Amino acid sequence: MNHILPTATTSDEKSRGAECAVLPVGSFEQHGDYLPLITDTVIASAISREVAEVYSLLQLPPVTISCSHEHSGWHGTVSISSSTLQSMIDDIYRSITDAGLTSLVILNCHGGNYVLANIVQEGSSRGRCMALFPSRRDWAEARRSARLATSAHEDMHAGELETSILLYANPELVRDGYPSADWVVDDRRHLLTIGMSKYTQNGVIGRPSLASAEKGKALLASLVDSFASVLEVLRKT
After folding, report:
1. Is residue 199 part of a domain?
2. Is 93 inside any structural domain?
3. How many C-beta neighbours within 10 Å does residue 17 have?
């Protein structure tokens, strides 16, 4: 079983002696009828679990509610303000550095958390050792490595990529119905103004019918490889 929350003890962390912490950031928002509200959190935790193991990092528990305002109106979706999210990151960074760690990687798996880029930019300009992962390029390389058929634009939400990762990492969370849930809409220029509900009837923008556990495994492997460059940059900071 792949745990969504880290299960290490304080003795485990003492032996690990990590210098960098990784903070998964997810969301609590609709992902169609076949993926859970915690989908982004599950994905962020899966990636964090993999990179923490490979690179000996402190894996923090995930932020489970974030900025999902574009999904307002869908049953179950809950959001916090961008200022609240920023305050949480500020407090977490202060706590881990007070404990002797030197850096923090924010591992974001919800596209609506635009504020996280500003947090890292501002923090870095003030001498904080922070990074945001994965970048658009990291995701693009992962898509190529896993041979996904869809692009990031086409496969925006609850589609091939997200369903594939859950099919691999936590298949027990994927319900029936995803093979027939494809919903493609390429022109979404007013998304921030009118929200998701104006562009999709079933909560999906993408092609989950193309998902597979094999693709999910390849996606995670590529992201683990890409993470090495993040640590390299942080060590030079």
Report:
1. yes
2. yes
3. 9
Give me the domain span that covers residue 191.
17-227
Q: What are 165's two structure tokens?
A: 């990762």
Q: Tell me the whole-structure pTM to 2 decimals.
A: 0.97
Length of the chain: 237
Query: Which amino acid would we find at residue 211?
Result: A
- Mean pLDDT across the chain, nearest whole number? 97
Give the number of domains in the chain. 1
The Cα-based distances of 87 to 44, 82, 119 in angstroms read 20, 9, 10
How far apart CA 216 and CA 148 sit, in angstroms, is 10
Distance between CA atoms of residues 101 and 133, nearest Å: 18
- Which pLDDT tens digit goes with each residue over 42-91? 999 999 999 999 999 999 999 999 999 999 989 999 999 999 999 999 99
State the CB neighbour count (10 A cutoff) for residue 122: 12
- 3-class DSSP state of 103: strand
Q: Residue 139: which CATH number?
A: 3.40.50.10310
- The residues facing 35 across adjacent strands are 31
